[in-house]
Amino acid sequence: MAVSIPPVLKRYSIPLFLFTLGLFFQIVVLPSSFPPTHYAVLGVKTHASVQEVTEAYEKLSAKWFSGSTPPTTIEFIKIRYAYEMLTNPIWKRDYDLFGIDEQLHVIEKLKKQYDGVDFSKIEPPLLNASIPDLANHGFNALTPEEFVSITGKGKAVLIQVYSAGSPRCAQFLNSWKRITNLLEGVAETGMVELGDVQVAAYLAEKKYTRQPFFRNGLPALVAFPPNCRSGDCYVRYQGELSVYEIVDWMATSILGLPRIYYYSKEALAPNFMAKTGQHKVKVICFSKTGERAAPFLRQAAKDYGTYASFAFILWREEDSSIWWNSFGVESAPAIVFLKDPGSKPVVYHGLFLSYHLMSLPGIYRLPCCLKDYSSISIIVGSLNSSEFITIMEENKHKEPPQLRSVTSMELGCDARGYSRAGNDTKIWYCVIVAGRPSHELSKMRDTMCRVRNVLLDAVDPDNANKVNFSVQAFAAAAAAALKENRLTFTWLDGELQKKYCMFYLFSDDAYETCGPRRYGDLTDVPRLFIVRYKRNSTEANVKVKKWPQSIWDTLSEQNANFASQLVARYKGSQDIYEIVRWLSEIVEDGDTKELPYSTQPTPDLIPEDANPIWSRSNQGMLSARNAVKEKIRSIAFHIGDYMRDPRIGPGLLLGACISFGTVWLKSSQTTQPTKRDEGTSSRRASRRHQNTRSSNHDRPPSITDSEPKDAYQLLSTDSDSE
């Protein structure tokens, strides 16, 4: 059976609800949100001076020990705590300006410790003031001018707000140093002391009273994303104060760096090697600890995402033989660069820095040529960002480098660009091996590596005894161009870059090299050609001509590129010295003779990554998704802050009173008419009566009129009366 609610309660439900809520706020919420201040405990005004605090405490002590009004144990603990905190200049400053009181837990601890004990048995001081002086030992502390200079730039910044008198900040200092080291190269770091009130208040949150405060106390961490120049875009860290959590938050949420995942020995080949593009170098990092990748590694994974793919492997001793046989890895930590299937991996071993990579002569040419080494092993130390970038620059390309949309300008193999020798270079060359990915192409690429090494040895005084004198003679022109960075060796994926390949090798048999394989035709013929680029061409009309020795084929005219082009195809054998001789003849003639040329635009190279995950244009500021998350979190925090506003309780009670009066007034109007309404009704009735009398007076007499008083009825003579 349903319980019926009395009509009166229904009518006054809203006022009763508001009254109950306001009473609950005033009795329960408000006292817990606004406990007595330490100044109130001592009986002095807010922000009283240290001298006033001392005098107030001495007066209370005099009363206690005189025996007139001894305090309870809890009262003594609270008063003594307030005295010690407010007489410490740094603690008092932090409490007055930012409401920071991070040793408040001491009161509860002492309550339990001295429960039932007389206050005279409590030994002061209650607080430990022997805190390391962070003001003198601060790590990368910033002045206000330095703070302004490092924020708002193209690099992210992580700021720690600390106090020189904070025990928590003193404990966090070593962790902060490690965080700074881990973020080196990807983000700037700095510390701001609360004494720099203007900067600290700028980094703090604001209460409804506009007083600055730090929600989670100190130390407080604030991150400025790249190009963040205002208080609307910086982000406060709300998580656990651990090194790995902070670094991961900075790398993932602020910098937007990709994660590098761990793979088991079973999952490495199918889930990493097979799923990453063949055009990318594989970078495999071996770790003994299983820790997350350092931020500079994740930054490299983002910056070199078009060149390389990254993976981590947890080193286990039982798997050591697998990694030795596969990559030549002896132990962890180690980094392996895999450039091509079947090529020799480049392995960086060890924990101690023996020598820098740049000091290794010939390291760039080793992997594709030394068949008696299972891997190239180099001992390096604990890498930092700049050293790892150096290693990546040396190993980001395949051997030789692949001609791609992202590498053509860098390699100097684009008519719209410049030579690797510099923007002032007038003539330069690009040697290209084109073909479909196959065993034949790999052999031709290996041959080109050997050709390049022969040319390097021809100009290297240390290796001059390795090269025959006659070889040095006929290789001189090409070797000199290679030394001057005017000659580049590269290879082209003819299957993917069909238009580009056909542009240079247009002939009846070009399908053997360019484009997908035809149905039933398994022929793969890699071809070698060289392109000469000449800047500042001025001839207006270009005619198709042949090189006098019939080795040059020119391209048709169209003045569209910055440099003219001339292409020659190699039609000889794969003998290394024959190729060297041919290249030298081409370079010598190209440098000394006036040759036909073309300015016809080259087809664009097709990007291998249609939708790159990481784009440089997206760097800076927070992503839209992270910005929305931060906004929602901020709104939730502010709602909680406003729920402790002391004006809410009186406002609810006032609303209850107004609502009660409104309901009562409406109910009174519906049950009792007012005097004004009664007077109006009587006047209306009187007016109707007068109107009725007036209308009867004006009408003519009729048989329906009332009978006069002296009227009588006459009887006729023929009546039946007696």
Q: Which features does this protein show?
A:
722 residues; alpha/beta; 5-stranded mixed beta sheet; 4-stranded mixed beta sheet; 12% strand; elongated; disordered C terminus
Helix count from the secondary structure assignment: 25
> Main beta sheet, described?
5 strands, mixed
The beta-strand count equals: 15
The rounded Rg comes to 46 Å
Form type = elongated
Structural class: alpha/beta
Strand content: 5-15%
**On the 0-100 scale, what is the average pLDDT?**
81
Strand order of the largest sheet: 8-7-9-10-11
Taking the alpha carbons of the first and last residues, their distance comes to 86 Å
| Percentage of residues assigned to helices | 40-55%
Low-confidence stretches are 351-375, 537-560, 611-621, 715-722
Walkthrough of the structure:
- The protein is α/β, with parallel strands linked by helices.
- The chain is 40% helix and 12% strand.
- It is built from 25 helices and 15 strands.
- The protein has helices spanning 7-11, 13-33, 38-42, 50-66, 73-86, 89-98, 105-113, 134-137, 144-150, 167-182, 197-203, 243-254, 268-273, 295-303, 320-327, 385-395, 408-411, 439-459, 469-474, 476-483, 498-504, 576-592, 624-642, 648-671, 675-698, and strands at 156-162, 187-193, 205-206, 212-213, 220-224, 235-236, 281-287, 308-314, 334-338, 346-349, 376-379, 427-435, 487-493, 527-535, 563-569.
- A five-stranded mixed β-sheet has the order 8-7-9-10-11.
- A hairpin with a 7-residue loop joins strand 9 and strand 10 (346-349).
- The radius of gyration is 46 Å and the shape is elongated.
- Residues 351-375, 537-560, 611-621 and 715-722 have low confidence and may be disordered.
- Keywords: Membrane, Transmembrane, Transmembrane helix.
- Pfam families: DnaJ.
- This is DnaJ subfamily C member 10.
